[in-house]
Amino acid sequence: MVFENYLPEMTRKPDFEEFWKRTLKELASEKLALKLTPYEYPSDSIEIFSIQFTGLFGEVLHGWYLLPKNRQEKIPCMIDYLGYLSVVGEPIGHLHWASLGFATIVMDVRGQGGLTGDAHPYPIPLLPMPIAHGLLDREVYYQRRLFADAFRCVEAAEALPEIDNKFISLTGASQGGALVMATAALGKERIFAAFPDVPSSSDIATRIQEETGSFKAIADYLRMNPENETAVLDVQTYFDTMNLAEWITCPIYASVALKDPVCPAKNYFASYNRIQSKKMITCYPYNGHEGGGQKHLLKKMRLAKQLVEESVEIKS
């Protein structure tokens, strides 16, 4: 397997676990305040709601909740996390999981151009790109908010009466793939299966050094402020998925592209090689950051359906 021996030294700090326990406790102190608003969609088979609930620092998260109308019992759920600087757009772009019989939750990421804001203040320096906001302070750093919001999506799914909490799965590409990894780690047994594609936020020190993808913004900052390198890299250790990967308990079905210049495959293997649960990865040797595209999406859909059906059969 490509990069099967790539295991850079972990950068986890002694208080790493305590930091995440405290973060989730802080998140739990925020009322979920779940709200659904029906959306008119011309279909006899799928119903859609705009959904909102509260994330870290009281930010209201906005997105879509889609589910099949013809259901006799509770159904599985797929939470679909977005890539960097993406927005949810219209719900018609998120119908595929509902067409398979899954409920779907897809949220606008805070502060990336959609309906979800990012109002809690950041200390100076306030840099242009979200990934660099608060980069000197782990407590207010952007990715702490991002990872907590992703976990809050699971809590929202668990609160929706149509969803079978035994079958909450995660998917997403690039930034979304990083959120899949982080949420699978923080959610542990609450997550049924996870499908990260071309994931970001793995082997972050190398990503910054090599200036790939969104992490170039942090390298730009360090060019001007080299005296802050240690502080910046220390903060990043709390959000590097290679430091979280050992907490994952659900099956992981990942994909990477070997010509991806944005989230290089090698960096993801720093996390993948540390996963202890059942795992499988598909490498696309000629593809870039688009990954496996629609062909891979179809593979994921077939596999996700199969996993649920086999689990139900075993338990029945």
* End-to-end Cα distance: 37 Å
Largest sheet: 9 strands, mixed
- Report the β-strand fraction as a percent range: 15-25%
Number of helices: 9
Helix content: 25-40%
Strand order of the largest sheet: 1-2-3-5-4-6-7-8-9
For the residues shown, what is the average pLDDT? 96
Question: Which secondary-structure class do the elements indicate?
Answer: alpha/beta
Secondary-structure element series: HEEEEHEHEHEHHHEHEH
Low-confidence runs (pLDDT<50, min 5 residues)?
none
**How many strand elements?**
9
Shape: globular
Indicate the radius of gyration in whole angstroms: 19 Å
What would your notes on this structure say?
The protein has a nine-stranded mixed β-sheet, sandwiched between helices. The chain has nine helices and nine strands. Helix 3 (142-159) crosses helix 4 (175-187) and helix 5 (204-210) crosses helix 6. It is an alpha/beta fold. Strand 1 and strand 2 form a beta hairpin.
